[in-house]
Amino acid sequence: MTSSSTDFLATGRRVIRREAGALATLAEVLGDSFGAAVGLLMAAKGRVIVSGMGKSGHIARKIAATFASTGTPAHFVHPAEASHGDLGMVAEGDVLIVLSNSGETPELADLLAHAKRFGIPMVGVSCREGSTLMRQADVGILLPEVPEACETGIVPTTSTTMTLALGDALAIALMEHRAFTPDHFRMFHPGGKLGARLLRVRDLMHDEPPLVAEDTPMGEALVEISRKGFGVVGVTDADGALVGIITDGDLRRHLDGLMSHTAGEVMTRNPRTIVTEALAGEALALMNDRKITCLLVTAEDRSRAIGIVHVHDCLRAGVA
Questions:
Q1: Does 189 reside within a domain?
Q2: 122 with 265, same domain?
Q3: Which among 14, 23, 137, 227 would be 20 to 30 A from 167, CA to CA?
Q4: Is pLDDT above 60 for 1?
Q5: Domain holding 280: CATH number?
Q6: pLDDT at 95
């Protein structure tokens, strides 16, 4: 029997729709046990230990990683390895999340016994009410009975999708309750594109920006431009407030008799600036939009220049 690309597409759509339907069902039946589980996790003085066997183990690893990256210390413990020494990684003060579709996975027995022996609270996640896992758990979250995505009903697909989504829901509930911010998130994601996207201007800016007073002769202003190496100089009034900027365009426009002018006579007033707490991506977008290479950085009141950021600083950091 041969299959066409149309058949493959129909299968793909059926699987996705079946799993999407299962998630919709999960959202509807999710009840008080979810809130109880979040409360148990919030009260943990130690770490959240997530465990599962087989496909549930793969999901457990991802859930643990999501918890850890969103402010809840967590790690994965393999239930079979737990029986050979890794039970020492589960200590008083921790909370267990144990995943098992059937709730009867034999490799979990020693982990469940260890939890009971040392009074370690446990959240069980299973599709079978009355299973060993659900009876042993302090809080049991029962997944709805929905068919797996395959027609034989034996491949863990829909069940693992629901478990993964449930783990995300727990992590986000904890994250929101703890008021976890993008700055906190960046602490756990300093590398790669994600870390770069969360950089602030203050992380990239240069302190001591090039600045001169309005009455500074242009000869001295040129020296400051050359000394700092950014190709621009900010201009301040008698109180130190930023009132203008001198760029190469300003220099060209006043080339005839340039040295007879002061900085205040050559500058462009009300220059574009960026605040320290702005995302670096916002600074890069502004520079690209205005076709400029650097921005003076100010505090939130935008009155005084306290730094300068160059487009190359953003690009070197991977901001794009």
A1: no
A2: no
A3: 14
A4: no
A5: 3.10.580.10
A6: 96
| Same domain assignment for residues 23 and 165 | yes
Are the CB atoms for 124 and 141 separated by under 8 Å? yes
DSSP string for 275-310 = ETTSBHHHHHHHHHHHT-SEEEEE-TT--SEEEEEE
Q: What is the mean pLDDT of residues 11-40?
A: 95
Please give the pLDDT value at position 181: 62
Residues with Cβ within 8 Å of 55's Cβ and at least 6 positions away in sequence, in order, are: 156, 160
Q: What does DSSP say about strands 305-310 and 206-207: parallel, antiparallel, or unpaired?
A: antiparallel
Tokens of 78: 């393999």
Long-range contacts of 249-256 (CB under 8 A, 24+ apart): 254/218
Q: Are residues 68 and 30 in the same domain?
A: yes
Last residue of a domain, one of 145, 180, 215: 180
Residue 180 has pLDDT above 90, yes or no: no
Please answer whether residues 153 and 11 qualify as being in contact, where contact means their C-beta atoms are separated by less than 8 angstroms: no
**Are 83 and 112 found together in one domain?**
yes
Whether 198 has a pLDDT exceeding 60, the answer reads: yes
- Contact, 318 vs 193, CB < 8 A? yes
Residue 182 scores a pLDDT above 70: no
Position 188 scores a pLDDT of 57
Domain hosting residue 225, numbered range: 201-316
pLDDT band at 99 (very low <50, low <70, confident <90, very high): very high
